Amino acid sequence: MRPIIGYNYGAREDVRVKKIYRTALALSVCIMALGTVLCWAIPSQLIGLFSTSAETIAAGRTALEIISLGFIVSSVSVISCGALEGLGMGGPSLAISLLRYALLILPAAFLFSRLWGAVGVWHAFWVTEVLTAAISYFLYNRTVHRPVPPSPGKNS
């Protein structure tokens, strides 16, 4: 997606850029929906691929069922990050990644663990995904709707 968005953005094909974003988002949502269904349908079997301990499988089942609540919505931040990188805007993409992996998840996990114990940490994941998705969608739209300066060497 990144090089295709970058090429079309450089060619000032704004309609194509938006279509590529929407298509990538739809594909990501489908993949993440499948992942969510698998995590809800066969969580014990999935964890069982990595451990035979009944205690680990039970804890992993709970974790997968809770964390997977954020899978579908995470598509927005993942695709927005990739699109922003394709547009040559690494700063907003980095900001989204920092939000997701440090600025939101760590405080949320700390707070939720104090409220609900270990299960609270798993809830911090989907809450962070929802917040990051909203922020990333805003950043992407704000960036994409900026006027594009004329290319050097072109008559305006």
From TrEMBL:
InterPro entries: MATE_fam, Membrane_Transporter-Flippase
Pfam families reported for this sequence: MatE
GO molecular function term, any single one: antiporter activity
Cellular component annotations (GO), alphabetically ordered: plasma membrane
Keywords, ordered alphabetically: Cell membrane, Membrane, Transmembrane, Transmembrane helix, Transport
Transmembrane annotation, as ranges: 20-43, 63-86, 122-140
Claim: Methyltransferase is one of the keywords in the record: no
Protein's UniProt keywords contain RNA-binding: no
Major localization listed first in the record, in broad terms: membrane
Subcellular locations according to the entry: Cell membrane
Membrane topology term: Multi-pass membrane protein
Name of the molecule in the record: MATE family efflux transporter
